[in-house]
Amino acid sequence: MPHSRPWSLLTDAEYALLAPHLPLTSPGRPIAEPRARLDAIFQAVTSTLPWRQTRSAHARTDTVHRTFRRWAHAGVWSRLLKLAARKRAPKTLRRLIDWLSACHRRTYRILGLPVLTLARRLNLPQALPGPSWMLPDPNLSEMVHRAVKWLLTRPLTAAARPYLRTCIRLLRTAEGRRRIHPSLIPA
């Protein structure tokens, strides 16, 4: 998925908006240069390369990736995506939505289904790690489970069987595809 803005270093205004939301300590010690780490993270996630192949002048790759994971567990990327997706978000922050979506996409392997749910709730398909119709849909799954529960509280009749078959098909759809072809996965 092409980014509307290619990677460049953060401006002072952009960093000033993001800095209050960043944990400035790593377990046991402060982060030496949080702005440089954030720049390195954005550089890595906006490229099509895996983490191990990204290079940054600001920090070592493993350090940058470890910081990214820690911030993902701390909810930084989800929180920033929510802030940028607001209708009244500052224009400076809205310019970063592609980069924040790329960070959010990469947290899927770390955080799982909540990442999908948030991206769908914010109506940001670019924050999903693949085509929405191929990914699990927890909302659809819950709705179908409620319908099945309701159907099973009544006597099972011949008329209810087609509804149950449809529910089974919908549950298969809601679980998503096991594999998504790499060409369909956003960069």
From TrEMBL:
Domain Insertion element IS402-like: 10-80
Family annotation (InterPro entries): IS402-like_dom, Transposase_6_like
Top-level taxon of origin: Bacteria
Name this protein carries in UniProt: Transposase
